[in-house]
Specification:
The complex is a heterodimer of chains A (166) and B (574). Chain A has helices spanning 16-26, 55-67, 97-110, 130-141, and strands spanning 2-11, 31-38, 44-53, 71-77, 82-93, 113-117, 121-128, 145-150, 154-157, 164-165. Chain A has 166 residues and is of the alpha+beta class. Chain A has 2 domains: 2-77, Alpha-Beta Plaits (2-Layer Sandwich); 84-154, ACT-like. Chain A, domain 2 (Alpha-Beta Plaits, 2-Layer Sandwich). In chain A, the strands form 2 sheets. Chain A has a 5-stranded antiparallel sheet with strand order 2-3-1-4-10, covered by helices on one side. In chain A, helix 3 packs antiparallel against helix 4 (130-141). The longest helix of chain A is centred in the middle third of the chain and has 14 residues, at 97-110. Chain A is elongated, with a radius of gyration of 19 Å. The model of chain A has no long low-confidence stretch (mean pLDDT 90). Chain B is α/β, with parallel strands linked by helices and 574 residues long. Chain B has 3 domains: 3-175, Rossmann fold (3-Layer(aba) Sandwich); 193-358, TPP-binding domain (Rossmann fold); 375-545, Rossmann fold, CATH 3.40.50.970. Chain B has 22 helices and 20 strands. In chain B, strands 3-2-4-5-7-6 form a 6-stranded parallel sheet, with helices on both faces. In chain B, strands 11-10-9-12-13-14 form a 6-stranded parallel sheet, sandwiched between helices. Chain B has a 6-stranded parallel sheet with strand order 16-15-17-18-20-19, sandwiched between helices. The relative contact order of chain B is 0.11. Classes of the chains: A alpha+beta (166), B alpha/beta (574). Chain A binds chain B through residues 10-11, 14-15, 18-19, 22-23, 26, 56, 59-60, 63-64, 66-73, and chain B through 121-122, 125-126, 129-130, 133, 150, 155, 182-185, 307-309, 311-313.
Chain lengths: 166, 574
């Protein structure tokens, strides 16, 4: 089992998201993360889906997705070739100045931005690879995480190409 | 074509006619009044009023399977649409081209839990190939055009169009008969030449080649190619349930249906072959059994299908070929014909073996009249002998279906119509209605069980009102027979809720609807009863009293493999 990322180009119609996610439910495959956004082509949207599954499950999903009428393109983004990002918003307890400076120091070393602060909390923003965000979140748990939001992964093929198209 | 100003309902009817629709099976309702107002005047489309929407879908499905042409059914919003669901799921899983039109509450009322509102669009998403919710009258031409194109191309299936009341009532200026396609819909038609050539080499070099043919061969109208390939190569042919009719049963190379309730020799051939060409099938568990190590263990597996998603879904294969089955078989034949006949391995020993198994199979079927066979076995054999080769047989689901699959000798494609994937009780009778409408000159017989028939029998009224003389032959054992059989064999004869009691009297039921009815107590009475039924010119019900504990045997027990059949005592061992 490993995380697989599929990038889809779909028609921007009402119901496409339901149809696409319904297909995963129907085939018994769990989506771990999903993002939907406009893309460079008018009338089309891009979906980035992360699933946990084997190579054969990925193959099945890819083919079933291709069969959906409104799916224009299915791209399998391999880890090593893709640039993968997740956005994280995190509210951390920081009641005393010691904790506060430690949080800020760690945030800086991870490249996280301080987007808000109150007397007893700091809100951080980090855009990074999902695994690095997970490590950062683990660290912050030491101080006490009040709230955590993650956008889910979005990814783009590296280099000049668009990933391996199926 | 010039722009025309039409109402939504008029556009729908114009586009249906442009798609060649001649028949629609449906039931009107409040939100469909505008559409039915146009259909009232319409001469080119015959609308058949059904008595339940499930039957409308099954009838459209039966019609499509007989003609290969897209069947059309119509239902109103809410309960009309939800009643369609079973029929649509049934057609879709068996890749039958059907377009369903459903009424919907006005767009302004969608989401308000209005009277007879159900979210047909979301409900039918997983049981259709594609569906549409039309929001604007001006979108109707392209939606209808695309619905028909999607339903009857690539892997065929069901497309539903949900039509809100205001979209049908509204008026728009439109261009009729547009051409417009989805960027993401490009069915894989042309098979890969490297793969077909590789297949030809494997088949030529095989000593024991076998073809496993499924419904995809019929769907692609490729039965001629299949037969030619089998004969040219010296390959045996076995089929799935959906593949009955791909090769005439009785052909010396045909070993009949394989799988859970298949012929023992068909299953044995799969186990013995060294190259298996599976065509237009999806390797359902009912075909492969559950011990996959017994399924063609020594064979190079070749899988031809129009749907890439079927490749390696249930079984890993050695050579996949995605594309139109007819083109793929033609290519394989072309490559084989280019080789000299002397090239490759001799199949003579295998052809001998196929003939030996074929004649054992024939003997086994002939022996049905002998003592020890069940009344059910004998009745289905009678039906097979009485009906001519062109007759169309539909089946309900359960024991009656498997008796028919096993003993009814199907000679032509599109003459054996059964619910393969979904296994829908109540399918056979409304499918027979669709079949009879599609082929009015052919005899159409539904092989039914008493349990199944009661699920959709109200449409006898449709048959009487519309002069659709189908004949229903009921295997009447007053049980849900297949489940009872499993309870007998695997649950210590605890017949939990499978007994159906003594009602109804099916002859009187038939007569109450104005149909012909007759009861058959002994198999030898069936011939006269069937003749009486056909001669009556009316829709007819023949109530065949069968042994309460008749069983369909042999069978692969649950969890078993294709050479682990039970109940093989009456089969000759060769």
């Amino acid at each position: 089992m490993q995380t697989r990322i599929i990038s889809l180009l779909v028609e921007d119609h009402p119901g496409v998201l339901t149809r696409m996610s319904g297909m995963f439910t129907m085939r018994g495959i769990n989506i771990t993360s999903l993002t939907v956004s406009p893309c460079e082509k008018e009338g089309l949207s891009r979906m980035t889906v992360a699933i946990d599954g084997s190579e054969s499950e990925l193959e099945k999903v890819r083919k079933q997705l291709s069969n959906l009428i409104e799916v224009v393109k299915v791209v399998d983004l391999k880890d090593e070739e893709a640039i993968i990002r997740d956005l994280c918003l995190l509210k951390v307890h920081a009641k005393d100045s010691g904790a506060r400076s430690e949080v800020m120091q760690l945030a800086e070393s991870y490249g996280a931005r301080i987007v808000d602060a109150t007397l007893d909390s700091v809100t951080l923003e980090l855009t990074e690879e999902p695994e690095r965000i997970s490590r950062f979140v683990e660290l912050m748990k030491h101080f006490g995480v009040k709230q955590l939001f993650r956008s889910g992964v979005t990814a783009i093929g590296g280099g000049g190409g668009g990933g391996s198209e199926k | 074509m010039a722009r025309v100003k039409l109402s939504g309902a008029e556009i729908v009817v114009e586009e249906l006619k442009d798609e060649g629709v001649e028949v629609a099976f449906g039931i009107p309702g409040g939100v469909l009044l505008d559409l039915y107002d146009i259909l009232y005047e319409e001469k080119e489309i015959r609308h058949i009023l059904m008595r339940h929407e499930q039957c409308a879908a099954h009838a459209a499905d039966g019609y499509a399977r007989v003609l290969g042409k897209t069947g059309v059914c119509i239902a109103t919003s809410g309960p009309g649409a939800t009643n369609l669901v079973t029929g649509l799921a049934n057609a879709n899983i068996d890749s039958s081209p059907v377009v369903a039109l459903t009424g919907q509450v006005p767009t302004s009322a969608i989401g308000s839990d209005a009277f007879q509102e159900a979210s047909t669009f979301t409900i039918t998403m997983p049981i259709t190939k594609h569906n549409f919710l039309v929001k604007r009258t001006e979108d109707l031409p392209k939606v209808i055009h695309n619905a028909f194109y999607i339903a009857n191309s690539g892997r065929k299936g069901v497309v539903l169009i949900d039509l809100p009341k205001d979209v049908l009532a509204g008026v728009a200026r439109v261009d009729l008969h547009p051409t417009w396609t989805f960027a993401g819909y490009k069915p894989n038609i042309k098979p890969n030449q490297v793969q077909t050539k590789k297949t030809a080499v494997v088949l030529a070099n095989a000593e024991r080649p076998l073809i496993l043919a499924g419904g995809g061969v019929i769907s692609a109208d490729a039965t001629e190619e299949l037969r030619h390939l089998a004969e040219f190569l010296g390959a045996g042919v076995v089929t799935t349930l959906m593949g009955k009719g791909t090769i005439p049963e009785g052909h010396p190379f045909c070993l009949g249906m394989a799988g859970m309730h298949g012929h023992i020799y068909a299953n044995r051939a799969i186990n013995e072959c060294d190259a298996l060409l599976a065509v237009g099938i999806r390797f359902s568990d009912r075909t492969t059994g559950w011990q996959l190590d017994q399924f063609a263990p020594d064979a190079t597996l070749i899988h031809v299908d129009i749907d890439a998603a079927e490749i390696n879904k249930n079984l890993q294969v050695d050579i996949p070929i995605v594309g139109d089955v007819k083109l793929a078989l033609s290519d394989i034949i072309k490559w084989l014909e280019k080789k000299k006949r002397t090239e490759g391995n001799s199949k003579s020993v295998w052809v001998q073996r196929i003939r030996e198994m074929h004649s054992a199979c024939e003997d086994c079927i002939k022996d049905v009249r002998s003592a020890g066979s069940s009344i059910s076995d004998r009745l289905i054999k009678e039906i097979s002998e009485i009906l001519d080769d062109d007759a169309i047989v539909t089946t309900e689901v359960g024991q009656c279906q498997m008796f028919a699959a096993h003993y009814y000798m199907t000679k032509n494609p599109r003459t054996f119509i059964s619910s393969g994937g979904l296994g829908t009780m109540g399918f056979g009778f409304p499918a027979a209605i669709g079949a009879k409408v599609a082929a009015p000159d052919k005899k159409v017989v539904d092989i039914a069980g008493d349990g199944s028939f009661l699920m959709t029998c109200q449409d006898l009224a449709t048959c009487v009102e519309n002069d659709i003389p189908v004949v229903v032959c009921i295997f009447d054992n007053r049980y849900l027979g297949m489940v009872r059989q499993w309870q007998e064999l695997f649950f210590d004869k605890k017949y939990s809720h499978t007994g159906l009691g003594i009602t109804p009297d099916f002859v009187k039921l038939a007569e109450a609807f104005g149909c012909y009815g007759e009861r058959v107590e002994k198999p030898e009475e069936l011939k006269d009863a069937l003749n009486n039924a056909f001669e009556s010119g009316k829709p007819a019900v023949i109530d065949m009293v069968v042994g309460k504990e008749d069983k369909v045997l042999p069978m692969i027990p649950p969890g078993g493999g294709i050479i682990g059949m039970i109940g093989t005592e009456k089969c000759k061992h060769v």
